[in-house]
Amino acid sequence: MSVKVDHYPNLQTEDLLPRDVWVWKPQVYDKDRDQHFPVIYMHDGQNLFFRERSFANSTWGVAEAITRLSVWGFIEPAIIVGIDNTQNRYGDYLPIKPYETPEGKAFIANLKEATDTFEETSFDADQYLRLIIETIKPIIDQNYRTSQTYKDTFTMGSSMGGLISLYALVEYPQIFGGAGCLSTHWPAVEDFIPPYLTTYLPTSGRHKIYFDHGTQDIDADYHPHQILVDQIMMEKGYTQGKDWITHVAPGAIHHEDAWRTRLHLPLRFFLGN
Q1: Where do the domains of the chain lie?
Q2: Residue 116 to residue 103: CA distance in whole angstroms
Q3: pLDDT value, residue 115
Q4: Of 34, 114, 186, 233, which shows the fewest CB atoms inside 10 Å?
Q5: How many Å apart are CA 26 and CA 19, to the nearest integer?
């Protein structure tokens, strides 16, 4: 199918690098002028719609998935907001509040000194979330017929994008009703994420959270971390299959092709009729 998107270039706030935002509307958007739509804010926007813009020459196929699932009657159609990453992707997507302890601050300092890879990294996850909440979301709500209740507002990403999706829900539970975290890159947050989630993760009853990972490639390293997070989910009162899903995809690798094949799972979880 031909994918048409609206383009908002060079959105910026505070000290963040500018980035483009891409908005896809479901096919039924123009048919019923009274209908308002859920919105999914997705990270790594380059990898969502157009193969020629993608990191791995492959996309999530999210427009195709929503079109197919909604036509079949499995889900409500939704608006997708794809937010591009920048060269500071790691710093934008790494949750920073878990490191606001003496040990965490020392870890970040050592990380910046250890290799050239992180020497120029600016750890700006809080600013990135404010970009979404204070700049991008108002543009979307002003220009599109969105359902602005938190129950119809979601965030989703893979790898580091999975981390920032979870962080967005925890930090802004009044804004986001669900977080889709595919192949969440737990090793990036080491042992600092469990205490943070234990303290700040909203208790069950108002939100939906989806996790998954494969069993090959770097996804194979995620399982022990996911077990710890799953235990916290249960302690917070979440019920597997009701308001929380952790899915293991046997044989799946860390790649857009893999995420595309199981994207229907979080879409049906969040938007299912």
Answers
A1: 6-97+125-271
A2: 22
A3: 67
A4: 34
A5: 23
